[in-house]
Amino acid sequence: MKCAVIVPIASGQQDFFDACVQSVEDAWAKGQGPFDAFDIIPLWDTTDAMSVAERYNLGIDIAKTRGADWLFFLNVIDLMNAGAFADMAHYHATHDAVWGNICVNLLGSSNIQLMPAQPTVAHKIEEVLRYLPERSVSLAHFVRTTSADAVRFDTQMGLGADHKYLLDLWEHHTCEKIARVFAIERRTQTPAPDAVGGTDWTKAVEGIVLERIKGRDVVCDVTFENKTAYFMMDNPFDIIQFCHGRGTFFEIKELQVLQSIVGMGKTIVEVGANIGNHLVFYAQHLDAKKIFPFEPNPEAVALLDKNIRANKLETVVDKRGIGIGAGAEYGKFAVMLPGENNLGAARLEAGSGELEVFPLDETLKGERVDFMKIDVEGMEFDVLKGAQGIIGRDKPTLMVEVFRPKIAQFEAWCADNNYRIVTTFPCVNAVNFVAKAA
Q: Which of 110, 221, 312, 385 is the 20 to 30 Å CA partner of 41?
């Protein structure tokens, strides 16, 4: 069984070729695994006449004519790891394509390390999609020639064709990522815009990933203090969902502090619940008695509902505030999302939409509140005004995100309402204040 190693060489990369070939020969000498022959197929394109997709498709075609059963794609600046061929011994009979962990070396440095925040193992496409593309799977992989030929690289795409090819393999063939290293990927500190991880490449790949993730149940498991939470994902580039993809709660340090400040078994109001990151933490790690989430953004609400169900919190969560907002008085608003990939930055704009906003004193009439978190992108004083009755009666602990120009105003509010600030969590444009009744 023959394995062909496909090595494309573009302009300015000629000096890397000898070291790349030597690494392949060293890996073969270390252990052949299931293979009895190997072939190196250099794809010389020093005038950059071909696109990346055209180069790799040419490599597939040449490998077919040379009778290669398997392929390995290796960028010329990269090095094959010594155990790469040997590590395929357990997978060649049952799989169509196999990846190892992404291992990187900055050019000019002797430091070699595993790429952080990548899946160590993966068995299905949903596990690949939950990670950022440049940290999920790379082109350094073993693949059956017939599978690579069936998928091929889309020559009409330009940037992103490499990642589309990878996702097509995962979707239509038997694939796995294993806890081994097949290649040492040598990179620059700041990749070129069109290189993997570069700005232009990332933008092109983002659309491919978001289209591929539609309609799939991508579930992220987040384990903290021996308890596992489950979060549904529809956008791995979103700031909060990115944390879930890595297996962590968003703003975990703040949440840990709240454990000691809020206490156990409390009734909690979460204004600006987003997709439920804090809500699930309250239920699992504060043993919340009752949680009242308020979230008007339809995009966030869809995931919030799923995350409540995924964590079986229907009896803990009162859903009266899901789909509406909280403010100083009744009104109709539109959701405005100023930036991409950040559902948490959604804000309400008055008078231009159909989303309804009510004062908390009205929607929570008769409910006792122990802790209230307010994260509403600039409307914090409207929410406080609409909850004046609850605050005056129950004296709940507060956590309020305050934009920096309004910090003095919030400090004055605390003084006027007999609250003292017990801790703060600075952000880029705002500060999260935790305050308790004096």
A: 110
CB 31 within 8 A of CB 65: no
Are 17 and 66 members of one domain? yes
**How would you list the strands of the sheet with 347-350, edge to edge?**
325-326, 355-358, 331-336, 347-350
CATH of the domain at 226: 3.40.50.150
pLDDT digits (tens, 9 = 90+) for 166-224: 999 999 999 999 999 999 999 877 788 888 888 899 999 999 999 999 989 999 999 99
Count how many domains the chain has. Answer: 2
Domain that holds residue 60: 2-213
Task: Specify the pTM.
Answer: 0.87
Quick: pLDDT tens for 264-311.
999 999 999 999 999 999 999 999 999 999 999 888 999 999 999 999
The span from the CA of 163 to the CA of 152, in Å, is 11
Q: Are 238 and 258 in a shared domain?
A: yes
User: Quick check: 173 and 194 in contact, CB under 8 A?
Assistant: no
